TrEMBL record:
<protein>
    <submittedName>
        <fullName>2,3-diaminopropionate biosynthesis protein SbnB</fullName>
    </submittedName>
</protein>
<dbReference type="GO" id="GO:0019290">
    <property type="term" value="P:siderophore biosynthetic process"/>
</dbReference>
<dbReference type="InterPro" id="IPR036291">
    <property type="entry name" value="NAD(P)-bd_dom_sf"/>
</dbReference>
<dbReference type="GO" id="GO:0016639">
    <property type="term" value="F:oxidoreductase activity, acting on the CH-NH2 group of donors, NAD or NADP as acceptor"/>
</dbReference>
<dbReference type="GO" id="GO:0005737">
    <property type="term" value="C:cytoplasm"/>
</dbReference>
<dbReference type="InterPro" id="IPR023401">
    <property type="entry name" value="ODC_N"/>
</dbReference>
<dbReference type="Pfam" id="PF02423">
    <property type="entry name" value="OCD_Mu_crystall"/>
</dbReference>
<dbReference type="InterPro" id="IPR023866">
    <property type="entry name" value="SbnB"/>
</dbReference>
<dbReference type="InterPro" id="IPR003462">
    <property type="entry name" value="ODC_Mu_crystall"/>
</dbReference>
Length: 333
């Protein structure tokens, strides 16, 4: 009951690197459990700074039942300025709590967990929303950072096999690095383009940027799939001209995300087609004459599910770090 363990970032990365297929299944199951009501996923809480408007630290508390039976919280910082010194934008920890007693049982480095669950979410959506597969198509990735790299890795594991990738980033060196990573890891054609319009014309467009405001104003064409992972790239008129699949309606329609702006513009939620779990359960049908946009706000239950898996795998190979006497008092009297 009073054991407390640390799972360091290297251990987290080692577990996730060899278990992407497992993570895809875990994320899919967590979506279904959340849709079925076997979870508690309150609003995320944003700590913002007046002199750093582009930076924030977010708290994501959650409880997930099913076969996880844990509560917890992810505390994740997003400081885009870090990229100017060659450091990752995001850093995070995940605290897991025992559901029976409420006691914290572990703290995990969670930037890797967060990027893995985000990438797995994109890959689960890609396979569900383009069920005929990706042969004969191109995937464009807008943004060349850590999240984009993970998305491409998970798309590959999920069996998304396009004829080629196109990468666009305002920083050419980042875009070229991602294109090189795809060529090396997937043995698939991948090239950089400085032309945003060329990227937006691809059959599947993945947004993984740090954009704070919309800059894409032209609607997508029928048959295009858009993975709106960074949430703020698309103008409201783009969203309103598509079928829209969200991870959770209440969560996504806030904080001036593109779907939230669309709600404000239209005055209703009629543009929301359904949730990804609804698609996975066969309850949501898409219109072939419209593009499809998937917008995931990011649910804490996904972090819990992936974090619980990582903790279990780390325990199996003995790579957790136990902290003796972490709790100062273990008796009432």
């Amino acid at each position: 009951m009073f054991n407390f363990e640390i799972v360091a970032g290297e251990t987290v990365r080692n577990v996730l690197h060899g278990k992407r297929g497992d993570v895809l299944g875990i994320v899919s199951s967590a979506y279904r459990a959340h849709e079925a009501g076997d979870s508690v996923n309150p609003d995320s809480y944003f700590l913002r700074f007046p002199d750093k408007p582009d930076s924030r630290i977010i708290a994501l508390p959650a409880y997930l039942g099913a076969d996880v039976q844990l509560a917890g919280i992810k505390w994740i910082a997003s400081f885009p300025g870090n990229t100017r010194i060659g450091a990752p934008r995001a850093s995070a920890v995940l605290v897991l709590n025992d559901y029976e007693t409420g006691y914290p049982i572990a703290c995990l480095e969670a930037a890797s967990i967060s990027s893995a669950r985000t990438a797995a979410s994109a890959a689960v959506a890609a396979t569900a929303l383009r069920p005929d597969g990706f042969e004969g198509t191109r995937i464009a990735v807008v943004g060349g950072g850590v999240i984009a790299r993970n998305i491409c890795d998970y798309l590959n594991v999920a069996g998304c096999a396009p004829d080629a990738y196109l990468v666009h980033d305002l920083d050419e060196s980042s875009g070229q690095a991602l294109a090189g990573h795809i060529r090396t890891t997937q043995d698939r054609p991948a090239s950089f383009t400085a032309d945003l319009d060329a990227a937006l014309a691809a059959d599947t467009v993945v947004f993984a940027t740090t954009a704070l405001e919309p800059y894409v104003t032209a609607p997508f064409r029928p048959g295009q799939l858009v993975l709106n992972i960074s949430l703020r790239d698309l103008a409201p008129e783009v969203v309103l001209a598509a079928d829209n699949i969200l991870d959770d309606v209440e969560h996504c329609l806030k904080a001036n995300t593109s779907p939230h702006l669309a709600e404000q513009r239209s005055g209703s939620r009629e543009f929301v087609t359904g949730t990804l779990a609804g698609v996975l359960n066969g309850e949501v049908k898409l219109a072939p004459e419209r593009p499809v946009i998937f917008s995931p706000f990011g649910l804490g239950v996904l972090d819990l599910a992936v974090g619980a898996f990582v903790l279990g795998e780390a325990r199996k190979d003995g790579s957790t770090i136990e902290v003796p006497n972490f709790f100062g008092e273990t008796r009432r009297w």
